[in-house]
Design a protein that fits this description.
Blueprint (H helix, E strand, L loop, with lengths): L14 E9 L5 E12 L2 H14 L9 E7 L2 E6 L4 E4 L2 E3 L7 H6 L6 E11 L5 E5 L7 E6 L3 E8 L5 H17 L7 E10 L11 E2 L2 E3 L15 H16 L5 H8 L1 H10 L1 H4 L2 H13 L1 H12 L7 H24 L17
Parallel strand pairs: 1-8, 6-13
Antiparallel strand pairs: 1-2, 3-4, 4-5, 7-10, 7-11, 8-9, 9-10, 12-13
Helix pairs in contact: 4-5, 8-9, 9-10
Bound molecules: flavin-adenine dinucleotide (FAD).
Length: 350
């Protein structure tokens, strides 16, 4: 939103989430008040908004499927599905994780960090909180994001045969537990492969070459921890545009790797730790018990906390967080004001 302030315009349909509910594999729960609302957009609204703005800025928008391209001198010749051909000086592959440009330009068939994301649009419900549910044996998580007139619920995990169906079953179980079985009555399924930043940070993705560049999912720039890629798609496109305008196409890969790319490389190399049970359990416990750690989580969700400085910030907070944890443990152990009868019990008349 800082980079694209027009997204804050209340005229753009969006839902604001004010809380995050984090559920750990053991069932621990942390509810965090977000320091700034998380804006959730319907993808079709976001896409058409960006497309209209591109058109107003001078881009010529054509709804054609590119079926192939070949080198022609210093430039390219492209063919679309109607058989029409056209020349271009510079080629930008922005055709997502399943597109043709990555394979043909970067020569990669499969991305090492691939994930699968599947989900349901749950009609008839919305809320003002996001839910993140971690599971004991999953390198991934379940989410529920409220949109203006429905919930986007999803789950991500590693790819493999039947992975999508196995994941959707786990999501269904969670939705039944969390929202009730009626939530599954009006759902629309969605899903796709998610091309994450490569686990092996020594082999960062090929972003550009002579007369071409890749942006967004086509370049495999998705955050391997959150599996979010919209920010990276917009950011890589912005950097490339700046470099092209400055006549410095070669500067693009360097600019990416020094900025958001360094964050993604950190994320890729810490994935094992992030999804380990001890980390998720203690993170949930501390986020719920300590307001300061809750602030860190809020900043992470807002994209304001860099991964690379996360450890330093948490270490600084450790004494305060330990204090808060001790107080919350004492509250549970020491007799406070007696509640009688305890919650859930009530006296029977007579
Ligand atoms: C289930 C799921 C949930 C997700 N949730 C989130 C989220 O909450 N937040 C987040 O940040 N990210 C999320 N992501 C990741 C996010 O969707 C992607 O990272 C993001 O859409 C990448 O944008 P992109 O423009 O690079 O690619 P895409 O959004 O895939 O766009 C590529 C476009 O290119 C077009 N195209 C493809 N081939 C051709 C061709 N040959 N000719 C012409 N056009 C072509 C496609 O039709 C498409 O419109 C999610 C992904 C999945 C699968």
């Amino acid at each position: 939103v800082d980079r694209c302030p027009f997204l804050a315009d209340p005229g753009v349909p969006q839902r604001r989430a004010h809380r995050a509910r984090i559920l750990s594999p053991s069932g621990r729960e942390a509810v965090i008040d977000l320091r700034e609302p998380l804006r959730v957009f319907r993808r079709s609204d976001l896409n058409s908004l960006l497309q209209k703005r591109a058109g107003r800025a001078g881009a010529e928008i054509r709804f054609e499927r590119i079926t192939g391209f070949v080198r022609e001198g210093p430039g390219w010749r492209l063919r679309d599905a109607s058989g029409r051909e056209e020349r271009a000086d510079f080629l930008v592959g922005a055709d997502g994780g399943a597109g043709i440009s990555r394979r043909r330009l970067a020569g990669d068939v499969a991305l090492p960090g691939r994930s699968v994301g599947v989900g349901y649009f749950v009609q008839g419900y919305t809320s003002d909180e996001i839910v993140l549910r971690f599971l004991p044996d999953l390198d991934g998580y379940i989410w529920i994001f409220p949109r203006p007139d429905h919930l986007a619920a999803g789950i991500c995990g590693p790819p493999g045969t039947g992975a999508g169906n196995l994941l959707i079953r786990r999501l269904e179980e969670f939705l039944i537990d969390h929202l009730g079985v009626s939530s599954l009555r009006r759902v629309v399924r969605y899903g796709a492969n998610i091309p994450c930043y490569a686990q092996d940070s020594a082999a960062p993705p090929a972003l550009a070459g002579n007369g071409w560049a890749l942006v967004g999912d086509a370049a495999g720039l998705v955050d391997p921890l959150t599996r979010e890629g919209i920010h990276q798609a917009l950011e890589s496109a912005r950097l490339l545009a700046e470099c092209l305008c400055a006549g410095n196409a070669r500067g693009y890969a360097r600019a990416w790797k020094e900025g958001t790319g360094a964050e993604m490389a950190w994320a890729a190399s810490h994935k094992g730790l992030f999804f380990s049970l001890p980390f998720i359990e203690s993170f949930t416990l501390l986020s719920g018990a300590s307001a300061s750690v809750g602030h860190v989580v809020s900043d992470l969700i807002a994209g304001r906390q860099e991964y690379r400085t996360l450890r330093r910030r948490l270490t600084r907070l450790a004494p305060r967080a330990a204090g808060a944890l001790a107080v919350s443990a004492l509250r549970r152990v020491l007799p406070g004001r007696r509640r009688f009868p305890p919650a859930g019990f009530f006296p029977v008349a007579g």
